[in-house]
Design a protein that fits this description.
Bound molecules: adenosine-5'-triphosphate
Shape: extended
Helix content: 40-55%
Distance between the termini: 115 Å
Largest sheet: 8 strands, parallel
Structural class: alpha/beta
Strand order of the largest sheet: 1-10-2-9-8-3-7-4
Length: about 675
C-alpha cells in the first residue's frame, strides 16, 4: 500500500511530497532484510530436524507453544494499544509513537503483497533458539518418553507349547491321498491282511498308513522297553478305529498267558459297542478274547465272563481286550474280585477330549491303582533288577479324537510318557505334508479339520418356518438319508412327529434320543442304516463317533452350542472318503454367534449360504396348519398318559406293607416272622 500515496483531508500541508525512487529503494532494502531473516529461520529449522525424534517433537511443541503464546500476547497488547489510541488520539500517530490499527492493517497487507506472511524479528528468532536449547537440555538422554510413541497394533502373543505339541507328525487329511495298499505294510500280520480283504478294504487311509507301522514298530521291542504315548487327531470318518485295532491285535496275538492287556475306554455305550464289534471282527482266527463292559448285560454276567476260577491257579482273567465306559469300568475295578490290570499293555482312550473333559468317577485314578507300576512312570526306573524281574513297563496310552484337546494342562492330567502327536492338515498331499509341517508348527492348535469331501452350508430361516424348510428340502429337493440334529430330547420328539404329520405318512421318520430304550434305539439305527427311514431325527446322543454308512445329509436343525459338537455332528456324513453335505439352520440373531464360533476353530471359510423363500413354501400352508393341530393333540395325549403313570406310581404300595395284610397276619400271631415281599419297581 506504500506504493500508493494516501491523501487525506488536511494532510497535504503537513507532509512533504514523496520521492518515488527513494521510496522504491527503501522498499527493496526491506525485502533484502526479510530475506536474511528467512534464511536464519531456515537454519534454525534444520537444526531442529537434526535433533533426536522425541527431542525434536518436544522442541517443535515448545516452539509452537511459544509462538502461540507470543501471538496471544501481541494480540492482547495491540488491543489495549488500540483502545488507548482510540481514547487518546484520533490522529494516525499517537504521541507515544504507537501506530494506529488502520496503519497496522495497511502494513500487514503490504507484507502479503511482498510475500511475507509473518515477519519474525531478530529478538523473536533468538527467543525461539533459546527455547529449543532449553527443551533439548531438559529431555533426558536414553529414556523413552511415554505418550510420544506412535501407536502400532501389537502382535498376537503365541502360546508356548511343549515341544511334542508344537512339532507334530503331520498326516494328510485328504482321503483321496491313498497311496498305500493293505499289502504295503510288510510288518502287518498276514491273517490281519486277510481280514482286511474280507472286509473289502484295499487301501489304508492316510492316518492308518502313518500310525499302524509306527505302533507295530514300537511293540516289536522287548516288553521292558517303554514305548512313547501317542495322541492322534484326525478328521471324523478318517479310519482312526482300525489305526489302533490292528496294531493291538497283532501285538497281543502271540501272548502266552491270558490277561487283560488292552483296555479301550469310550465315553458312551453305543460307541463302545461299535468298537467292540470291530475288535471281534478282526480277532477272528486268533484266540484273543474281547469283552464289552457297558451294562449291555447284567453286572453279574459281566463278572462271570471277566474273571474265572480254576482249582489250580484260583481266579484268573479270562479276557485279553476290555472295551468299556468309564463308569462301568470303575464299578468292576471296585466290585469284581480278581479283575486285574497288572499286565496292561495298551490303554486306549477314544474320543479322548470328551473322556478327559469329564473324567467320570476319577476312573484314571482307579486304573492307575490297578496297574502294576505307576502309570505315570515316575516310580519305575529301568534297572537290571526290573529287567531280571521281567516287570512289564506301564501301558502305552493311545489317545484318539477328531477334536483332540491340545490344552497342555488337560493333557498333563493323563501323565503322558514322552508323547508323540499325529495330526492332520486338510487338503495336504502326503508328499507336501512334511514340508508344510515346518510351517504349521504350533499353528494347528485349536483348529479342527473336517473331511475334504464335506460340503458345508448354512441357511437363514425364521424359527417358525424351520420344519417347513426341512420338509421342503427332503420332499421337493429329494434329499435322502438325512440325519437331523436338535438340541434336546423334547425338540427331537416334536420335530419327528411334525415331519410325520406334514408328510401325511409319506415320509418315514425315525427318532433317537436318550429318552428311548436301548433296544428301540438300536432298532431305529438299524432301520436307518438299511435305508428304511428317510430321516432320522436325533439329539446329540448320536453326534459323536457313531458310524452310520451312507448318510448323505446332516442337518443341524438347532444350532450347536459348542464348536466341537458341530464338528462331530457334521462328521456323521462324508465318512471314509464318501461325499456328504452338512446344513446348519440359523435364525437371523444366531448368524454372528455361529460365525464367531467357526472362527475360533478356523473353520469360517467355505461355508456356503443358501435360502428358501416364503413363496417356495406357500404350497405347504394348509398341511402345516393341520400338522400343528395334530401335533398339539398328540402331545396332550402323551402328557395325560404320563401324569396317569406318575399317579399310579405314587399310589403304589408293596403288598406286604398293605395295612390290611399286616392286620390279618398279626391276628394269627405271625407278626414276628412277617416277611417284606416288595414288588420290584421298574
Ligand atoms: N482303509 C479303509 N478303507 C475303506 N473303509 C475304511 C477304511 N478304514 C476305515 N474304513 C471305514 O470308514 C468308516 C469310518 O471309520 P472310523 O469309524 O474308524 O472313523 P473315525 O475316524 O473313528 O471317525 P470318528 O472320529 O467319527 O469316530 C468305517 O465305516 C470304516 O469301516
Amino acid at each position: 500500500m506504500d506504493l500508493f500515496i494516501m491523501r487525506r483531508f488536511g494532510e497535504e500541508s503537513e507532509k512533504e511530497p514523496v520521492n518515488q525512487e527513494d521510496h522504491l529503494s527503501s522498499l527493496l532494502e526491506k525485502i533484502e532484510e526479510r530475506k536474511k531473516k528467512r534464511e536464519k529461520l531456515n537454519e534454525l529449522q534444520k537444526q531442529r530436524e537434526e535433533a533426536p525424534s522425541e527431542e525434536k517433537r518436544q522442541v517443535i511443541k515448545h516452539v509452537h507453544v511459544n509462538e502461540k503464546e507470543k501471538k496471544r500476547k501481541d494480540k492482547r497488547k495491540h488491543k489495549s494499544e488500540n483502545n488507548e489510541a482510540l481514547l487518546n488520539d484520533t490522529s494516525e500517530k499517537s504521541e507515544s509513537g504507537i501506530e494506529s490499527p488502520t496503519k497496522k492493517k495497511k502494513k500487514k497487507r503490504k507484507n502479503v503483497e511482498l510475500g511475507n506472511d509473518g515477519p519474525l524479528d531478530e529478538l523473536e528468532i533468538k527467543k525461539t533458539e533459546d527455547a529449543c536449547t532449553k527443551v533439548q537440555s531438559k529431555v533426558p538422554q536414553g529414556f523413552t518418553i511415554i505418550g510420544t510413541d506412535k501407536f502400532s497394533k501389537k502382535s498376537k502373543v503365541k502360546r508356548v507349547l511343549p515341544y511334542w505339541l508344537a512339532h507334530p507328525n503331520v498326516v494328510s487329511g485328504s482321503m483321496t491321498d491313498i497311496s498305500k495298499t493293505i499289502y504295503d505294510i510288510p510288518s502287518l500280520d498276514k491273517d490281519l491282511v486277510k481280514r482286511l480283504e474280507e472286509n473289502n478294504i484295499k487301501y489304508f487311509f492316510p492316518v492308518q498308513s502313518k500310525v499302524i507301522p509306527w505302533l507295530l514298530e514300537a511293540h516289536r521291542k522287548p516288553l521292558q522297553y517303554r514305548p512313547n504315548d501317542v495322541c492322534i487327531s484326525a478328521p471324523t470318518g478318517s479310519g482312526k478305529t482300525l489305526a489302533f485295532v490292528l496294531p493291538v491285535i497283532q501285538a497281543l496275538k502271540s501272548r502266552v498267558m491270558r490277561h487283560v492287556r488292552a483296555l479301550v475306554v469310550l465315553p458312551v455305550r453305543d460307541l463302545a459297542l461299535q468298537i467292540f464289534d470291530v475288535f471281534k471282527e478282526y480277532c477272528k482266527g486268533t484266540d484273543l478274547k474281547v469283552i464289552l463292559l457297558t451294562g449291555h448285560s447284567s453286572f453279574v454276567k459281566e463278572q462271570q465272563e471277566l474273571v474265572k476260577t480254576s482249582s489250580i491257579i484260583g481266579q484268573y482273567n479270562a479276557v485279553d481286550i476290555v472295551v468299556t465306559t468309564p463308569g462301568r469300568l470303575v464299578e468292576h475295578l471296585i466290585d469284581t474280585p480278581g479283575f486285574s490290570l497288572k499286565f496292561l499293555q495298551f490303554l486306549i482312550i477314544d474320543e479322548a477330549d470328551r473322556v478327559v473333559d469329564n473324567i467320570q468317577n476319577d476312573w484314571l485314578h482307579h486304573v492307575e491303582k490297578h496297574v502294576s507300576s505307576d502309570i505315570t512312570g515316575k516310580r519305575t526306573a529301568l534297572s537290571s533288577l526290573s529287567l531280571q524281574a521281567m516287570i512289564p513297563s506301564p501301558p502305552q496310552k493311545l489317545l484318539f479324537s477328531a477334536t483332540l484337546t491340545q490344552d497342555p494342562e488337560k493333557l498333563e492330567k493323563l501323565g503322558l510318557f514322552q508323547p508323540k502327536l499325529f495330526t492332520t492338515i486338510v487338503g495336504e498331499r502326503d508328499a507336501d505334508v512334511q514340508e508344510s509341517a515346518t510351517e504349521v508348527r504350533g499353528d494347528f492348535v485349536g483348529k479342527y479339520t473336517t473331511p475334504a469331501e464335506l460340503t458345508e452350508k448354512c441357511c437363514v430361516v425364521d424359527p417358525e418356518l424351520k420344519p417347513l424348510v426341512l420338509y421342503h428340502l427332503i420332499s421337493n429337493e429329494n434329499w435322502k438319508n438325512v440325519l437331523c440334529f436338535t438340541n434336546s430330547q423334547k425338540n427331537t420328539h416334536r420335530l419327528a412327529l411334525l415331519l410325520r404329520y406334514l408328510g401325511g405318512g409319506s415320509l418315514n421318520v425315525g427318532e433317537i434320543s436318550g429318552a428311548l430304550r436301548r433296544d428301540l434305539r438300536d432298532k431305529t439305527i438299524q432301520r436307518f442304516s438299511s435305508g428304511k427311514l428317510n430321516v432320522l431325527v436325533s439329539s446329540d446322543a448320536l453326534a459323536r463317533g457313531i458310524d452310520i454308512p451312507d448318510v448323505d445329509y446332516v442337518v443341524s436343525y438347532d444350532v450347536p452350542k459348542f464348536v466341537k459338537t458341530h464338528i462331530h455332528r457334521i462328521g456323521r456324513t462324508a465318512r471314509a472318503g464318501r461325499k456328504g453335505t452338512a446344513v446348519t439352520f440359523l435364525e437371523k440373531k444366531e448368524v454372528n454367534k455361529f460365525k464367531v464360533m467357526l472362527q475360533t476353530a478356523s473353520k469360517e471359510n467355505g461355508v456356503e449360504d443358501f435360502s428358501v423363500t416364503h413363496s417356495d413354501l406357500e404350497y405347504l400352508e394348509n398341511d402345516y396348519k393341520n400338522a400343528l393341530t395334530a401335533l398339539q393333540q398328540n402331545l396332550q395325549k402323551e402328557e395325560e398318559l404320563e401324569t396317569k403313570k406318575l399317579r399310579r406310581l405314587r399310589t403304589f404300595r408293596p403288598k406286604s406293607l398293605n395295612i390290611q395284610n399286616i392286620q390279618r397276619k398279626t391276628k394269627i400271631g405271625k407278626t414276628k416272622s412277617l416277611k417284606v415281599k416288595g414288588k420290584k419297581e421298574n
